[in-house]
Amino acid sequence: MAVSWRSWLANEGSKHLFLFFWLSVNVWLFWKTFLLYYRGLQYYYLHQMLGLGLCVSRASASVLNFNCCLVLLPMCRVLLAFLRGSQKVASRKTRRLIDKSKTFHVTCGVTICIFSVLHVAAHLVNALNFSENYNEDFLALNAANYRGEDPRKLLFATVPGLTGVVMVLVLFLMCTASTYAIRVSNYDIFWYTHNLFFVFYMLLMLHVSGGVLKYQTNLEEHPPGCFNPNKTLRENMTAPKAFVEPFPDYTTEPFPEDLSVPEPFVQNNFMRICSEEPKFQSHFPETWFWISGPLCLYCVERLYRYIRSNKPVTITSVISHPSNVLEVRMIKDDFKARPGQYVILHCPRVSGLESHPFTLTMCPTDTKATFGVHLKVVGDWTERFRDLLLLHSNQDTEILPIFQQRRYPKLYVDGPFGSPFEESLNYEVSLCVAGGIGVTPFASVLNTLLDGWKRYKLRRLYFIWVCRDIESFRWFADLLCMLHNKLWQENRPDYINIQLYLSQTDGIQKIIGEKYQALNSRLLIGRPHWKLLFDEIAKCNRRKTIGVFCCGPNKISKILHKLSNSSNSYGTRFEYNKESFS
Question: Known InterPro entries for this protein (predicted)?
């Protein structure tokens, strides 16, 4: 399959280029810091004591500071949603980069893990060198108290060592619980361990305040390796003859300022003269500069989100759909959202700490304030949530006026937040592919088109929905029929191309109900032939850029991603966008 370089660059290529750029930046930062500590005169004595362990530990620390600073920014969801919705980010390419915030967050996290291993290994070597290379001449520089001290004391009996050990444990828990297998099998473990990031950052603040590694402050008065005539000579040290003759009676009196040093002695740089003892000082914790800004920004955003979501929503209806899908419709004052966005639901009666994201399937408009979500009951949280909601409703589909509402449990909504599917209305042609419950992002788009499609750039929509059982299509069958009838009445039947695929059949091969005849004629058995589908779309939309949006299993996503990168003879370019379940 031939690859279109323009499509590859717009889709997968941008990711590879970014990863290469990110790796280059981190390697460059590591190397520059390594050379600074290897060649820097202010670290001469510390380098003599620790060797390359000093350079590696400080170089890896600079990379960790850089990544710990940036890893929080992709989690500032309100900021990202604002940038995506503002007119300042007018370029679609730039907005698509914002959609890669999760990838950027994961990249920073992996970088932190890799360089943390390097940092820990270097400090283990440093602890051993501090013990073995204890120097009585530079007491202020020693981290050990005496030669041969157990290096484990430096790790478990000092603030930098103990905080470092705990940070490694916290980071290990966060990394292992972030793997795909654990996120899918037990999301609670991922959620709880990931919230340990605050503990990690507090420990990081304490870790860098220990001041174990020090630098020399008086290089002018005491150049590294110089000879100090004001200090009593060591027993095993013989003074150069040039010094013995001018100072036959050597004392500890100050070095006479008017006495000249023999010129050959200075010119040949045999040994430079120093006027005072070396002075050492701990670095100001640079980590505070790196992480204080992003950490404060994240804390301010979380406070804003807490205040914004502090008032519970009003649940207007709860609808039980086939195949364990629940629809919740709500009203909230001053709530505004764009199609494709998602919200985070928090129900204290289900869990006091857990919150879960759900895509909006209905957005508020100028004429109605109701918004809603569809959630599939697949875990402990959704099961308890369903039981609480349906406990108060005998007729699940009944919608009552606000003043006659049942006593539903309190539900708090945080959001909305941006997602790649907001771009589906900004292409002239869009291909939307859904697998099962992955149809939810496109439901809000379809609801928006039902209210009016003329104000959007979108002029043709290909909607592909693949489900395992026929009953799943009933989730949004009414919406699809209403949109189909509306477009026919407006003489735009070609505006939307609906294709429904039933991958498994139990004998029933149509959606029951006379009003669903329009959908039954578009219902196909089996799976889509994706290559033929892309070729047909490219042929009908020559030399156009088509937005491809997928929300479903990874198998479908990989196929669409590969086809989006392939070239065609019609000059059509496909730009791939994906929403992930995990």
Answer: Cyt_b245_heavy_chain, FAD-bd_8, FAD-bd_FR_type, Fe3_Rdtase_TM_dom, Fe_red_NAD-bd_6, FNR_nucleotide-bd, RBOH/FRE, Riboflavin_synthase-like_b-brl
In order of 142, 145, 146, the CA distances from 136 in angstroms are: 8, 10, 9
Tell me: domain 311-391+409-418, CATH 2.40.30.10, correct? yes
According to CATH, where is 2.40.30.10 located in the chain?
A: 311-391+409-418
Q: What is the pLDDT of residues 512-553, one digit of tens each?
A: 666 777 787 788 888 889 999 999 998 888 888 898 998 888
CA distance 67 to 112: 6
CATH topology of domain 424-442+450-505+518-581: Rossmann fold (3.40.50)
Bridge partners, 547 (sequence order): 430, 575
Residue with tokens 């620790």: 50
| Pair 441, 465: CB distance under 8 Å | no
Contacts of 505 (CB under 8 A, 6+ apart): 470, 525
What global pTM score does this model have? Answer: 0.76
Half-sphere exposure of 126 (CA within 13 A, CB side): 24
Q: Residue holding tokens 């932190």?
A: 112
**What is the distance between the alpha carbons of residues 326 and 374, in angstroms, rounded to a whole number?**
6
User: Given pLDDT bands bounded at 50, 70 and 90, which one contains residue 60?
Assistant: very high
Bridge partners, 329 (sequence order): 317, 372
pLDDT at 201 over 50: yes
Report the sign of the C-alpha dihedral through residues 106, 110, 115, 120, in that order.
positive
